[in-house]
């Protein structure tokens, strides 16, 4: 039987066969991406021409919100920061203390309070703010019932800013994207506007129809951009792509470090040719390969060999790269990373100042939303003799205790901040009087809920407070008083 010689072509064929398997383990990308459609390269190009790429940047922000935990946490943090506590401030033509004016103010206060309470503003406004931070703008239309209220978000691709009414944005909607069967998914005003366009004999009429101010709700993350909208944190998207790329590189390198390759040397004769046949090489090669785990590869070579490993000697370097990319993202977002669990930054002062800066940024949005809500109130109650304006309080979940103390202390000095204090601690204007009547007049909690008595809360003189078990007054219990005997 003819013996087949192990040739260089055979070696190259085996090497290609094994090498292809090794290369499949190398899943390193040649470019950083948020996902397949939004690479770092494209994002940088879009940022150079933001007006022309408004839609691309908005979609990139949405993709980052879905795929990047850091970007998502940043948006969620800012969106949930305000608590949307509010008060209703009267705007009357006559502030005399006549009983008639008092009765009118009380009646209209209840009308306004019931309507605003029905709006469920804390929930609706958090939704509005979150979408505005992702897209750069929020286009919404209102569904309203006797005991229900909902702001339906609209796709920004079908909307465009049209005009400004009393400092608030109004927008147009492209009715041509809707079929008649779609109208049931929108408030009744959409059906009216759609038929005005669709049934018109004038073929030049524009499908872009203005959504009336009594049902539209539009706010922008950046009011200074009047002609277009951009996600406020779109400039951090390249940092998001870098972080994702470093994470994938680290994961790929960690996986490659588990793999080894065995190179088997084929013996050569004096003429530098294989001294054993191809069939023998194949037999021993197959024996080795069949007994190797998946993480170990093998090749047959006429050269000297060593065990080839893919482990990275500087593993900490890659961990540092991810940490550095994460820190650069938070720094680029102008947010203190300690809020999100960064153990390397423990400065309480820096954290407090950073949070205050975040709150200031959100306050501008709160004021904008308040103007929209007050516009809706004017549409419904604008003809009343006594009107009320809604004001969102600058209360966040980071400063709620501080603000409650401020309003409480001001009320103790006679300032009209009792409603603000009640709202801050969770009692809305609509529920303020009702809860007070329920607790004191119905449930009689003032008499039934009394503090327990102990020697620490009892005084020898009922008319004078004491601070210790001896019944001494605050002045008598001081160290100086005891040492001098009261002189």
Primary descriptors:
three-stranded antiparallel sheet; disordered N terminus; alpha+beta; 487 residues
Structure notes:
- The chain has about 475 residues and is an alpha+beta fold.
- About 45% of the residues lie in helices and about 15% in strands.
- The strands form five sheets. The chain has a three-stranded antiparallel beta sheet.
Specify the overall morphology.
extended
Strand content: 5-15%
Query: Mean of residue pLDDT?
Result: 77
Query: Biggest sheet, open or closed, and with what strands and sense?
Result: 3 strands, antiparallel
Kindly state the number of beta strands. 13
**Radius of gyration, Cα only, in angstroms?**
36 Å
Summarize the structure.
The chain is built from 16 helices and 13 strands. The chain has 487 residues and is of the alpha+beta class.
Please specify the SSE layout and strand pairing.
Blueprint: H1 8-25, E1 33-35, E2 38-39, H2 40-48, H3 54-67, H4 69-80, E3 86-92, H5 99-119, H6 121-135, E4 137-144, E5 149-153, E6 159-165, E7 168-174, H7 188-198, E8 208-210, E9 216-220, H8 237-256, E10 260-265, H9 278-290, E11 296-301, E12 308-309, H10 315-332, H11 348-381, E13 386-392, H12 400-412, H13 418-424, H14 429-442, H15 445-448, H16 479-484
Parallel strand pairs: 10-11
Antiparallel strand pairs: 1-2, 3-13, 4-5, 4-9, 6-7, 7-8, 10-12
Helix pairs in contact: 3-4, 4-6, 8-10, 12-13
């Amino acid at each position: 039987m003819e013996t087949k010689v192990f040739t260089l072509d055979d070696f190259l064929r085996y090497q290609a066969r094994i090498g292809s398997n090794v290369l499949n383990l190398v899943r390193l990308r040649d470019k950083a991406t948020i996902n397949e459609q939004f690479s770092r390269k494209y994002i940088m190009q879009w940022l150079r021409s933001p007006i022309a790429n408004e839609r691309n940047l908005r979609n990139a922000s949405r993709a980052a919100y879905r795929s990047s935990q850091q970007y998502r946490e940043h948006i969620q943090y800012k969106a949930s920061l305000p608590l949307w506590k509010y008060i209703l401030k009267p705007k009357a033509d006559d502030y005399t203390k006549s009983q008639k004016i008092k009765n009118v103010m009380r009646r209209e206060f209840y009308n306004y309070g019931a309507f605003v309470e029905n709006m469920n503003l804390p929930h609706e406004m958090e939704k509005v703010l979150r979408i505005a931070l992702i897209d750069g703008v929020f286009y919404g239309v209102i569904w309203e019932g006797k005991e229900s209220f909902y702001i339906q978000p609209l796709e920004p691709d079908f909307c465009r800013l049209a005009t400004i009414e009393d400092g608030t944005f109004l927008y147009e909607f492209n009715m041509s994207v809707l079929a008649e069967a779609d109208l049931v998914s929108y408030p009744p005003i959409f059906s009216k506007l759609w038929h005005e366009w669709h049934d018109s004999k004038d073929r030049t009429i524009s499908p872009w129809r203005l959504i009336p101010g009594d049902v539209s709700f539009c706010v922008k993350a950046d009011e200074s951009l009047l002609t277009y909208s951009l996600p406020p944190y779109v400039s951090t998207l390249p940092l998001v792509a870098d972080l994702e790329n470093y994470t994938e590189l680290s994961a790929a390198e960690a996986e490659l470090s588990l793999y080894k390759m065995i190179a088997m040397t084929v013996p050569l004769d004096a003429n530098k040719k294989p001294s054993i046949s191809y069939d023998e090489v194949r037999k021993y090669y197959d024996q080795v390969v069949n007994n190797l785990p998946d993480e170990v590869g093998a090749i047959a070579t006429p050269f000297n060999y060593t065990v080839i490993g893919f482990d990275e000697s500087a593993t900490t370097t890659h961990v540092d790269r991810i940490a550095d990319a994460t820190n650069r993202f938070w720094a680029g977002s102008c947010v203190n990373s300690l809020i999100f669990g960064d153990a390397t930054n423990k400065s309480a002062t820096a954290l407090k100042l950073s949070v205050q800066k975040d709150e200031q940024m959100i306050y501008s949005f709160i004021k904008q939303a308040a103007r929209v809500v007050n516009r809706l109130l004017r549409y419904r109650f604008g003809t009343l003799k006594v009107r009320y304006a809604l004001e969102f309080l600058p209360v966040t979940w980071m400063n709620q205790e501080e603000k409650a103390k401020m309003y409480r202390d001001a009320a103790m000095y006679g300032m009209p901040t009792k409603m603000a204090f009640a709202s801050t601690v969770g009692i809305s204007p609509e529920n303020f009087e009702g809860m007070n009547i329920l607790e004191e007049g119905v449930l009689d909690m003032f008499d039934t809920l009394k503090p327990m008595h102990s020697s620490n809360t009892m005084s020898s003189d009922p008319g004078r407070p004491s601070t210790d078990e001896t019944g001494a007054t605050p002045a008598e219990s001081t160290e100086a008083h005891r040492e001098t005997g009261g002189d």
